[in-house]
Specification:
The protein has 250 residues and is α/β, with parallel strands linked by helices. The chain is 48% helix and 10% strand. The protein folds into two domains: 167 residues, Rossmann fold (3-Layer(aba) Sandwich), CATH 3.40.50; 74 residues, Orthogonal Bundle (DNA polymerase, domain 1), CATH 1.10.150.240.
Length: 250
C-alpha cells in the first residue's frame, strides 16, 4: 500500500474517531481486495424521499422522516428475529403509516403511496459514478448487497445509468431476512466465489459497518451523515464521508 493510501485512511479514521486497524500499525498485511460490495445507500441518495415529507407536511416533515426511518429498521430486525419476514417495501410502508399515526398526521393512502414511490426515483450521490469507474479500472468486481428490494435496486441503477458497472444486484429478500443477519452478508461470498477477506464491504450505516465487520469482511464506512461510531466493540477498517475516500483507501 502506498504512503498516500495509508495517510488517507488515517485522516478518514480521525474524522469519525476510528482507530487505524492492526495491519496499518505494521503487524500484518491485509488480503488483496478483489471485489467491493456496496450497501445501496452508499450509492443512492435517499434525501429526496425524506425531503418530500416536508413538502407534504410543512413544519412536521423532519419529525415524520426521522420516525419513519427509525421504525423502518426496527421493523426489519423485529420481523427477522421473530421469523415473520416481510420485504423492505412492506416494512417501509408500515413504518410510514405508524410514524404518521404517532404524530397525528392525516396521511392519506395516496400520500403514502407518493412518498413510497420516492424509493423508485432515487439516483446516485454525485461522487458515485467517478468512484465506480475508478474501481472498475483497477480491476475490482462490484456488486450491491442491500436490504432493499430488487425493484428498488434495479430502479436506482437505471435512474443513474450505472447498470453496467455491477456484476450483480443482490437483495437480502433472497434469504427472507435482513442485514446484519450473517446469512445476508454470505450472499456476497456465494455470488463472487471469493474469500470474505477479499471482498471489501462499503456500508452507509454504522450498524451495517459493524455487522459486516463481525461477519469477517474488511469494511469501509461511507459516513455521509457524520454519525458517531457505534458502541459495538468493533471498528471499520476505513471510513470517510465520500467515495473518493474509498478509492484512496483501496
Amino acid at each position: 500500500m502506498s504512503r498516500r493510501s495509508v495517510l488517507a485512511l488515517g485522516a478518514a479514521g480521525m474524522a469519525v474517531g476510528v482507530s487505524a486497524p492492526a495491519w496499518i500499525r505494521g503487524t500484518e498485511e491485509p488480503a488483496a481486495i478483489r471485489a467491493v460490495a456496496f450497501d445501496a445507500f452508499a450509492l443512492f441518495d435517499p434525501r429526496p424521499v425524506f425531503n418530500a415529507c416536508e413538502s407534504m407536511f410543512p413544519g412536521r416533515g423532519a419529525e415524520l422522516a426521522i420516525l419513519w426511518r427509525t421504525r423502518q429498521f426496527e421493523y426489519q430486525w423485529l420481523r427477522s428475529l421473530s421469523g415473520r419476514y416481510a420485504d423492505f417495501w412492506s416494512v417501509t410502508r408500515a413504518a410510514l403509516e405508524f410514524a404518521a399515526r404517532s404524530l397525528n398526521l392525516n396521511l392519506t393512502g395516496g400520500q403514502r403511496d407518493d412518498l413510497m414511490q420516492g424509493y423508485l426515483f432515487m439516483s446516485t450521490w454525485p461522487d458515485v459514478q467517478p468512484a465506480l469507474a475508478a474501481l472498475r479500472r483497477a480491476g475490482k468486481h462490484l456488486i450491491m448487497l442491500s436490504n432493499a428490494t430488487d425493484e428498488i435496486l434495479r430502479a436506482g441503477v437505471r435512474n443513474s445509468a450505472v447498470e453496467s458497472m455491477f456484476a450483480e444486484l443482490i437483495s437480502t429478500d433472497r434469504i427472507k431476512s435482513f442485514k446484519p443477519d450473517p446469512r445476508a452478508y454470505q450472499l456476497g461470498v456465494d455470488r463472487l466465489g471469493l474469500r470474505r477477506e477479499a471482498i471489501l464491504f462499503v456500508a452507509y450505516a454504522g450498524w451495517d459497518a459493524a455487522g459486516a465487520k463481525w461477519f469477517g469482511y474488511p469494511t469501509f464506512w461511507n459516513n455521509r451523515q457524520h454519525a458517531s461510531l457505534e458502541a459495538l466493540d468493533v471498528v471499520p477498517d476505513g471510513a470517510g464521508e465520500s467515495l473518493q475516500a474509498l478509492t484512496e483507501f483501496i
